[in-house]
Design a protein that fits this description.
This protein has 365 residues and is of the alpha/beta class. It has twelve helices and six strands. Strand 2 and strand 3 form a beta hairpin.
Amino acid sequence: MKKSNLKQYFPVLRTKAEILTEIGGDPRLDTIFKSWEKEQQNEFLNFCTGVKGCKILYDAFFKKIMNPTENPERLERFLSAVLKKKVKIVQVLPNESRMTAESSLLIMDIVVELEDGSIANVEMQKIGYAFPGQRTSCYSADLLLRQYQRVKTGLQAANKKFSYMQIKDVYTIVLFEKSPQELKDMPDHYIHRGRVTFDTDLKIHMPQEFIYIPLDNFRAILQNKGIGNEFDAWLTFLCEDEPEIIEKLIQKYPYFRELYSEVYKLCENLEDIMGYYTEALQEMDKNTTLYMIEEQQERIEELQDQIEKEIKQNEKQESTIKELQVGREKDQLEFKAELVRKDAELGQKDARIAELEKQLAALGK
């Protein structure tokens, strides 16, 4: 395959020499650039020159492209591809009740209300967190409760009666750049859809739907599968940085060329883009640290459970030993009592024999 030249699609891209000249001519930029590791310097130069695709999942790039307030039609197209139905965003909802302690693990956390009244929470995780099922359920329950409160309050203000039939679907969509082990263990799948079901096949609609999208699984599959539809195109746009694949994407779906152009436009201002990149590096370090802490905490809890089980097992064994000892002592006491009884019986028999012998002797006389 011939090497792709992204500059033919994006003329704003500059050469490595041009970028280094500008950096070297500004002491502030030069200091920032030299503070990075060699690998980080090369990565920065590669996506600014088109040697590699730009990192769409970097916070600044992603927010620029997928901002639902400035460009709602983009998130609408993405959600339509994910949900397999055409959607329209009517408003962006605040997510102030989100568990903010974990927000630094997120690239994006957007909550929108759709035209049919349903709610979609789109969350992008750079590092797969522990317990995804439990956390996703909590987030979904949080959104469902907020919808209930908002709908009920609105109806009360309008002097209307509330009905639970007015509660609409809540979609929790989580994309992972590096997915948790549960999803890695299913490498042939890059989207998982789930709802609450009943073992009797009971037909009751439950409003919560969960969608997991492991992008690392998708990248591995993409090498053989290719870009099959618009959903694949969106995932390719989000996670792929190989110029040859980007070229195929914009040839098959020219819509994405405009999106890439906006990102590369950011690269023209070196001061801003270097600031964004520095923030991204700091955030990745923080994310990695938090993830390691979570893994350690999980391991600590596992060890604590194991210790508690062993303690209970030892206590059970000690209890069994004590029961055996008590049983043995009881048996010994019963055995001694039996010996005393037998001795008494023998004594009585000896006395009886002696008495009979005495009677026998008297008869002989």
